Amino acid sequence: MRADRLLSIMLILQAQGKTTTLALSEKLEVSRRTILRDIDALSIAGVPVHAEAGHGGGVYLDEHYRVSLTGLTESEVRALFVFNQPSPLRDVGLGRAVENTLLKLFAILPSQHRQEAEWIQQRILLDPASWWPPVKTLPHLETLKAAVFGDHHIQVRYEHGDGSVVERILEPYSLVAKASVWYLIARCDGELRTYRASRFIAVETMSERFERDVTFDIMKYWHTHVNEFIANMPSFAFTLRLNATRLKLLRLYAEGGYTIRDTSADGTVLTVDMQLTSLEEARMLVLGLGTDAEIIEPDELRKAVLLQAQQMVTHLSRD
Length: 319
What we know:
extended, alpha+beta, about 45% helix, SH3 type barrels, 5-stranded antiparallel β-sheet, Arc Repressor Mutant, subunit A, 11 strands, 4 domains
């Protein structure tokens, strides 16, 4: 591990310039004495690292001691460094590797490109996590990752959305994170399928390995899978007349599921076309809107809301 630490010291000094031994020790989680010994080792090895004592002093590398990375355009540098919060990769133990890679790249960039990297990192942040992180932990994610990397069969117990549990032997091809929700692409009985990682009840890695289909393309497969999922997603269309003050509720609970068809002259009433996944979901939304919403169509929704409201009144009126 010392060799890794020595390299990290060099990269930090190249990327940040002069720093203190205290800052290095905190960054690398070792003592200042260890950092001092490492600096001596680098110096003996011929690395032009210098140390200055006193106020304003610190440790630094000779400014000419760096590797040049040429051929990158401004846009390419921005693309490299815009993804500076790799939270899904942390789930599979690769977050630190990404951070170290960016550090290494930053250290060997020419000065003008380093300014570009710093510029873009303060202007765009990609955060793939949703506001409400999944409550379920993923105890089998590390096992799935190891099986994917090693091309090993896995024996699993998996819970479907309807609650039924099945046992399968799978050939795990790939892991995919969509909005921080992990999925496994695996071959089962000769057919590629997609499994939600949180629904694995048990995962056991088998010693037997499988032959991957060399024609498999994860990007092509996932693009096709997403399009098929969207095309087959159930939907329920309805239209509401809505108090404009309740638009915030639609934005919160039905973002992307509504279109404003018309607005009253004074702007206080909206006619909204909605599309959710089911009658039940539409009924829950309308009940939540209360008297601020009027159902224009269909009559099926109006009857379902009325029945639910009557049942609620009866239930809540009990002594």
